[in-house]
C-alpha cells in the first residue's frame, strides 16, 4: 500500500454489503457474545476464529483491523484498548524469562519503563541505546537478546533509525524487530515493507484523529500475529470495545486528508521557528536541516505535525511563552484536530544537566493563525 492514492480509496470506499442492509459504515456490534443454533456451529466458530465472544473477536473491531493491516502492508492486525495494551501484548509474545531486549533510548516513556523496570521482576533485561547509531545497536546485542525495539521517528527529539539496516541486523542475529510507527502513521511509513517484523500504533493519535477514543494495534504477518492471538490478546484482556472501534474507523476515513494537512502546517511552523534568531534548534524530520533528513526521505513518504524546539535554558521564560498561546492548548497528547503544546526536558550531558524542550503539535487550524499566535507569545514572553 505504498501508493498513497490507493490508500485514499481504501479508507474511504467499502463495497455494498447486504449483511448490513447496504449501510455505508459497518454497524456497531454492541454485543458481548454471539449465540448459535447448534453446538456444532459454535464449536466450528471457536475453531475457525469466528465471532463467539467479543474479548476475542467482534465484527466492528475486525473491520478496523482488516483495514489497518491493509494500510500497513501486513497480513493481520489485532486492536487493543490502548497503545500500551498493544505494546505490552507484543512484547510479552516475544520475550521469556532470561531474555534480553535492545531498545532505542528515545522510545515512548511508558514503553521504556515497562521494559527497563517492570519486566525485570520476571527476569527480562533491557538495554537502551542510541537508535541513530547502528554500531551501538549491534554492540548491545548479546546471546540472550530476543528483541530489537524501535521508534522512528521518536516523539520528542525526532530521531530516526535506519529501518532496513536494523531489520537486516536483527535477522543476522536471529532476533525479532518491533517498531512504534505512531508518528508517521501507515500513510507516511510502512516498516513491514522494510523488513520489520511487527508494527504497533497508538490509535489514540492520528488514526483516531478526534481526541475522543483510545486504542492500539499490532500489525504483522498472519503467523506472527497468531503467536499472541490466543494468548496475550485473550489472557491480558486489553481488548478494544466495538464502540471505540467505530469511532476510530470514522477517523480512519479521513486519515490521508488530515495527514496532508498536518504536514502543511507542521512544515510551515517548523520553517518559521527555524527563522527565529533565538531558537537554537528545531527538531522536525521534514526540514533539510534535520541531521537525518536524507534517511527520512528514503524510508518515509511524508511528515506529520509534531515537532519540538529549544530556545535557551530559561524554563520560566518558556513557560510564560506557552501560557500566552491561544491556539496551542497545553496538553501532552497529539494526533487530534487541535494544536497542543507541552514542555519537557532532555539530558544534555553525562552530568545530568537538562535542557528544556518545547513540543508543538500542529493541528488542523490555519497555519498563518498558528504562526501569528506563536509570534505574539514569543514577544509577550520577552523573546527577541
From TrEMBL:
What InterPro entries does the record point to? Cys/Met-Metab_PyrdxlP-dep_enz, Cys_met_metab_PP, PyrdxlP-dep_Trfase, PyrdxlP-dep_Trfase_major, PyrdxlP-dep_Trfase_small
Superkingdom of origin = Bacteria
Annotated Gene3D superfamilies: Aspartate Aminotransferase, domain 1 (3.90.1150.10), Type I PLP-dependent aspartate aminotransferase-like (Major domain) (3.40.640.10)
UniProt feature coiled coil, ranges: none
Alphabetical UniProt keywords: Aminotransferase, Pyridoxal phosphate, Transferase
A single Pfam family it belongs to is Cys_Met_Meta_PP
Which co-factor is required?
pyridoxal 5'-phosphate
Query: Do you know which PROSITE patterns this protein is assigned to?
Result: CYS_MET_METAB_PP (PS00868)
Would I find Transmembrane helix among this entry's keywords?
no
Tell me the GO molecular function terms: transaminase activity
Q: Which named protein is this?
A: Aminotransferase class I/II-fold pyridoxal phosphate-dependent enzyme
State the species of origin.
Answer: Cohnella silvisoli
